[in-house]
Every structure is written in structure tokens, then in C-alpha cells.
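Objective 1b of the project was to move from sequence-level analysis to a structural picture of ligand recognition. The entry below was assembled by the postdoctoral researcher (A.K.) and checked by the PI before modelling. It contains the amino acid sequence of the target and the SMILES of the bound compound, S-adenosylmethionine.
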Amino acid sequence: MARPGIQKHLAIAPLLQCPICGHALHAREASVACENGHDFAISAKGFLNLCPQQAPHKGYDEAFFSSRQSVMEHGYYNVVSEGIIDALRELPRNAVILDAGCGEGSYAKALCAAMGCTVIGFDIAREGIRCAARGGGPVRWLVADLAHIPVRPAQADVILNVFTPANYAEFQRVLKPGGMLVKVIPAPQHMHELRELAGSQLRKTEFTDHGVAEHLERHMRIVQRTRVTRTSPVTPEDAVDLARMSPVSFGVNLDTLDLAALSHITVDAEIICATF
Ligand SMILES: C[S@@+](CC[C@H](N)C(=O)[O-])C[C@H]1O[C@@H](n2cnc3c(N)ncnc32)[C@H](O)[C@@H]1O
Ligand SMILES: [Zn+2]
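Corresponding predicted holo structure:
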């Protein structure tokens, strides 16, 4: 029997398709392969790279994901994960959940622990997936592009999409009929303390949601919309991680920020549930 990190990925081969030719992937000894000979080895580090040619994404590096993981472990975003779990509380245990753009994987892990479902987290950033896969566990991890999701049509009961771009054509293809998208977007007070601190270094100091909810509504029907907000005190160590883990600070010189002044941080988000 293959090692658990390999075996758990072989077990989901029936859900997967080749990212190169679109044919079904099948389990081999320690890899998955299609009938055209495209073969993808399962890493001994516990993930499967189905996006071999991706270019590194600016800002989404090891420091970003390890800081993000630390902030998640210290509970600042629990209000979001609790809200997601609450939205999915009636989901059966045999459901399949895809976390599209899972980053370092904290939401996928929390969902899997709470619901016992089959959870597959994927992200285009290999560094995020390496971080997610550390320590094993039941979640399956793919390096994959949400614009070309390497999943066969109509396999997922739920797609989770947290603070991450969407691709509605792909979501429609991989969701089962009646399946649900749970999309989390920032709300106006999100990290306002960090935005205020970064001030003039930001291209836009005002909050903008970029019309994401309106765009979603052009493709899907919203069935539930919940706002979750929590302001927490910040320790000096966590202030550094909070600054590093947020796209708010992309392009900001963190050395010039007075992070000691970051005494509190607000997480403010909308959890939107929608169907096609
Ligand atoms: C702000 S992070 C959010 C990560 C995670 N969902 C969370 O909330 O902690 C945005 C993520 O989207 C991922 N991403 C961006 N474009 C993507 C694509 N085309 N396919 C898959 N992931 C993508 C990035 O690599 C990054 O991990
Ligand atoms: Zn192929």
C-alpha cells in the first residue's frame, strides 16, 4: 500500500481530469495519468501538481502563506471559518467540497474537520499548497488553476472561494446540478486599521469591493448573504504577520510602517451562498 499522502490522492483520481488534454485521469502506482500519457507524480510532500507550467504569482510567496497560516492559527479569522461551517451545516458527509484558491489551506482543513466530507483544496501558488500539505491530514491538495480546473464535470457539491478570484464557467462545469458556491469577499471594514496605517503608500486608501457581488449575480442566484465582523486585539508578533499576509500590503514597504501602532485588527467579510 502506498504512503497515506500518496494513497489519499490516488483515491480521488476518479474525480480528476488531465489539465493538458482534458481526458480522465487514472490512478497508477504513485501518480495519476491520462490515456495520452500525461503523467503527474504525487509529491512525497503530500500534494499533486496538476499545473506544471504555472508562473509564480507576485506577492504569493512562502512568507505570505506562512504569515497567513500563523494568523489563521491565532484565530483572527475564526469568525469567517465558523460562518462558512454554519452555512454548510446541512451538507451530507459524503459531499465533495472544492476549495478553489485555498492558499495555505486553513479553511479546507477546518471544513474537513467539522464536516468529515471529501475536501480538495487547490491553488495556483505552489508555495501555498506546500504550506497546506505540511503535517498530512485528510484534505487532498492540488496545484491547479481555477481557470482550468482539473476536475471532471459535475463532481462537486460545494465550491468554496475565499478572498480569491472566481471563474463562473468553470464553477458551473464542475458543480453537480444544484451544487452550491460559497464565496467570501471582504466587506467595508476589513483590515481598515492596516489600510489606515499604510495610508499614502496604498494605490487606493478607500475600500472597494470591485463589484464582485454584482458580477456574481450576473452568473448565479444568491440564496444567502451573511456579514461576519470581529475586531481583535493584536500582539506585536502577530502585527508583523498581519501586515505580511494581506494583499492590502502588496507594494507597501513594510519596514516603514509603525506596526507597534496596530493594536487591533478587524476582519469583516460577506459569506455569499449561490447556485446556478
Ligand atoms: C488572498 S489569497 C486567499 C487564499 C485563501 N483562500 C485564504 O483566504 O486564506 C488569494 C489566493 O488566490 C490564489 N489564486 C489566484 N489566482 C488563481 C488561479 N487562477 N487559480 C487558483 N488560485 C489562484 C492565490 O494564489 C492566492 O493563494
Ligand atoms: Zn492528458
